[in-house]
Amino acid sequence: MKATARAHTNIALIKYWGKRDRSLILPMNNSLSLTLDGFYTETTVEFHDYLTADVFYLNNDCITGKAYQRVTSFLDRVREKAGRTDVYAEVHSVNHVPTAAGLASSASGFSALAAAASKAIGMQLNNQELSVLTRQGSGSACRSVYGGFVEWEKGLKEDGSDSHAIPIVPANHWDIRVAAAVMSSDAKKILSREGMERTVNTSSFYPSWVESIPADLITIKKGIMHKDFEKVGSIAEANCLRMHATTLAAHPPFTYWQSTTFLIMEAVRDLRSSGVPAYFTIDAGPNVKVLYLPEDEETVQHKLRSIAGVRDVIVSKPGQGISYV
Amino acid sequence: MKATARAHTNIALIKYWGKRDRSLILPMNNSLSLTLDGFYTETTVEFHDYLTADVFYLNNDCITGKAYQRVTSFLDRVREKAGRTDVYAEVHSVNHVPTAAGLASSASGFSALAAAASKAIGMQLNNQELSVLTRQGSGSACRSVYGGFVEWEKGLKEDGSDSHAIPIVPANHWDIRVAAAVMSSDAKKILSREGMERTVNTSSFYPSWVESIPADLITIKKGIMHKDFEKVGSIAEANCLRMHATTLAAHPPFTYWQSTTFLIMEAVRDLRSSGVPAYFTIDAGPNVKVLYLPEDEETVQHKLRSIAGVRDVIVSKPGQGISYV
What we know:
The structure is a homodimer of 325-residue chains.
Chain A lengths: L1 E13 L4 E3 L4 E2 L3 E18 L6 E4 L2 E2 L2 H18 L5 E9 L8 H16 L6 H9 L13 E5 L10 E4 L9 E7 L8 H11 L3 H20 L3 H20 L10 H15 L5 E4 L5 E5 L4 H9 L4 E7 L6 E2 L1
Parallel strand pairs in A: 5-7
Antiparallel strand pairs in A: 1-4, 1-14, 2-3, 4-7, 4-8, 5-6, 8-9, 10-12, 10-13, 11-12
Helix pairs in contact in A: 1-2, 2-3, 5-6, 7-8
InterPro entries (chains A, B): GHMP_kinase_C_sf, Mev_decarb, Mev_diP_decarb, MVD-like_N, Mvd1_C, Ribosomal_Su5_D2-typ_SF, Ribsml_uS5_D2-typ_fold_subgr
Keywords (chains A, B): ATP-binding, Lipid biosynthesis, Lipid metabolism, Lyase, Nucleotide-binding
Family (chains A, B): Belongs to the diphosphomevalonate decarboxylase family.
């Protein structure tokens, strides 16, 4: 009853922003992401009948508190689904995600955990079933089951059984680049879940956000099919700005942006003014990821590294989905 | 046929953002402003029957081009209204508005022009009639007819005769302060009219903006009546953020903010975190104005002057409406 899985993180180009069901983690809108090869989590799960509780090691540290609670609650779902509520797990996770890069480790983390745990406990889930399971640990993690460009279909059913990711092209369809700008100063902590909830509950712009998604998805999927970088980049950037605009209309208003965030956005616009197709996207935090084409590697790196407040730039390519080690 | 008038500029706390009629300058929503004593325009208009065209001097320079066209088009309206299409005017305007402060000189400019021109041509307009006339030169200028806190009622009539400002309290009701942070670098030019139109025509958040105004107005007017600074400041700041959020959802998206804009917003939030009630507001440009109470003068000035990119800080108090010199 032991398995090891590796999962990569992903970056949303059309954002997941708002839940319709908190417990099952069902989203208000479809989202679309690119799985990234540079950032992954490798997790080994072994179930023992002699354990009386789960044990969770992250990067060799024994974890307690909230992070442990989230893992053990998720393993409860796995045990229930497998009909094996009599076993507990020893979980070893190693994050190959530089946390300073501001890339969500929960996406790769829960994706690897779901894959390893379900296999270790003896379930044979296909990727779609695995995505449904993974979603219940961390919403955006359900997209990391697949490589490349992936859509998370929100689904319609109340039980969430049709809310899962699907790949929209083969994982190796298109070689683009994503640079994560690492900030010098410690990013201030703003809880993404809290901000999302406040926005859904109080922002007068939130309903328009939800209504705007289908058109974005149609356009960006066409752009991905035809490898139209300008179309994909401009839709992703506009979608990101629209998502962040909803927080400015929350009550009280707030923003995830910091002044360095703003400088990076300006630098990306400067790149475009000088003829380099580059586009930014920002999740529920201050960090900025920049999309560009392989041939502009040097120009983009140079520009991003020249920004006051940017300490490092980490580049990623499109990555693969879940694999078992 | 000669008259001189002085008008002060004003800063909107509930923004005028979007026209329902371009020619008559009729707004989509009511707005609310504070007239400022520190920034004014003094204009002398003299009509001569020997002139064959208007002549316009601004700060002793003879003006031609677009600015001249706007003035002479406005004087056409004055002549038509007065039934004196046979006379042309010599206009001398002096702006006591530091243009670097990013405070709209068109508000004080068209307000002073409307007052001086209508008096010089022999019309005796009351302030409400003057506000209707002024609005046709520059929308927000119609609020500068009155001192202190002023509401611009959008009106319902197609001819615009009920779209004018009204004072909501006596001009000397409440002594608060407004600091304009002057930026070191030249502000990049973004046309406010163009941005406003693009937002009205393409932003999916624009209808929600219009719907959100009545609630803001009720709350801020209560706050002004009761001199509740926190209420007034927080509504003004939220309204400004909501207005700027509409531009992020335009197609293509854009922003009037620059990185210094963002630094000043952060500094104002810092002031609040340290117990100083200060709030920002931003018009269709990068400049930031900060509202605070007289007793916090030193702290606010010190904080704003410490920001990289801020060259000067210009403080204003509530000002009077139109006066004739």
